[in-house]
Amino acid sequence: MGEMENGNQEAALDLASRLTQDHHQSLKLWLRMLSCTVRIENEIRSRMRATFDITLPRFDLMAQLERHPDGLRMGELSKRMMVTGGNITGITDQLEQEKLVARVPDAKDRRVYTVKLTDAGRLTFAQMAVVHEGWIAEMLHAISPEDKGRLIHLLSHMKQHLNTSDDKKD
Questions:
Q1: H, E, C per residue of the chain
Q2: Which CATH number applies to 54-139?
Q3: The pLDDT of residue 75 is above 80
């Protein structure tokens, strides 16, 4: 075998090794992020139920509405929460029965509803949000503020990259 062929084989092996190593590291990163997310979510879900007798999806829907005081259409809620319209309808029905949200018919299209927090819903959400934030701070207390800043920066960069990748697929 000549030097040229041997060099090409070594380069190919080195490339394969780097690809495998990068793939392995990417998979490890994904699994670590997923593991942390699931652990935190499960703890928050449990605490929400025990403390406020509310499910995490109901809290999340109220959080979306808190950010949009003029309300959101059902389809927009579905998109923002990344769940089906049927799920949004069920959650909204429950919160409406408890007088925490109200469906308001759209002035231009009576078939469309905007969902808004009621005054009671806004007050209830504000109380839950303070406690929720405290739980998150408690769970992440061992991470220094500097490391939190770095993680936020890195994950923001990742999110931007993923959003750009999604745009290229369309």
A1: CCHHHHHHHHHHHHHHHHHHHHHHHHHHHHHHHHHHHHHHHHHHHHHHHHHHCCCHHHHHHHHHHHHCCCCEEHHHHHHHHCCCHHHHHHHHHHHHHCCCEEEEECCCCCCCEEEEECHHHHHHHHHHHHHHHHHHHHHCCCCCHHHHHHHHHHHHHHHHHHHHHHHHHC
A2: 1.10.10.10
A3: yes
